[in-house]
Amino acid sequence: MRQKKSPDSSGSKKQSSNRRGAQQLFYTEAFKQKIVNEVLSGKLNKRQASLIYGIRGNATILYWINQSRGLKGYAAKTKQVGNFADMKKDIHTKKLEEENKELKELLRVAELRADLWQHAIEIAEKKFNIDIVKKYGAQQSTPSKNSGQKKK
């Protein structure tokens, strides 16, 4: 009788049995890396690799891929539990930042308008040779005699 040879005859798999009698396979790091490279390069998908190389377990190759990427097995990434008060504070802070940005823009526009009006007044004073802006410390003009009398 001929024995069936496995596709990987390099001896990269070792078999051992545990207490219950079920076989558990251990794979060398070189073998694991070879499978991971083939799957990641697109030569094989996970299912094809498990069939060709006789790898048991639906997630074994995925586990190896995660290990090669630096992830620790199936360990779920810990998510921080959101603190409602902090979330509310962040939302409030963002609203204040937006309002501050809008107010700064409105202030910029108002300053541009003020500069425009000031420039227009200066041009009018030069063109018409009149004082439009009251000078500081200027005396109030005296009212005429007729303005004090009321109509009858």
Q: What's the arrangement of secondary structure elements?
A:
Layout: E1 13-17, E2 23-27, H1 29-41, H2 46-53, H3 60-68, H4 84-128
Antiparallel strand pairs: 1-2
Quick summary:
With 152 residues, the chain is mainly α.
Q: Keywords, please?
A:
single chain; mainly alpha; two-stranded antiparallel sheet; 2 strands; about 5% strand
Main sheet record? 2 strands, antiparallel
Give the strand order, joined by hyphens, for the main sheet.
Answer: 1-2
Count of helical regions: 4
* Radius of gyration (Å): 43 Å
**Shape type:** rod-shaped
Which ranges are low-confidence, i.e. pLDDT below 50, for 5 or more consecutive residues? Answer: 1-11, 15-19
Report the sheet-strand fraction: 5-15%
The separation of the N and C termini measures: 141 Å
The quaternary state of the protein chains shown equals: single chain
What structural class do you assign from the helix and strand content? mainly alpha
Number of strands: 2
Overall tally of domains: 2
Round the mean pLDDT to the nearest integer and report it: 77
Helix content: 40-55%
Order of helices and strands: EEHHHH
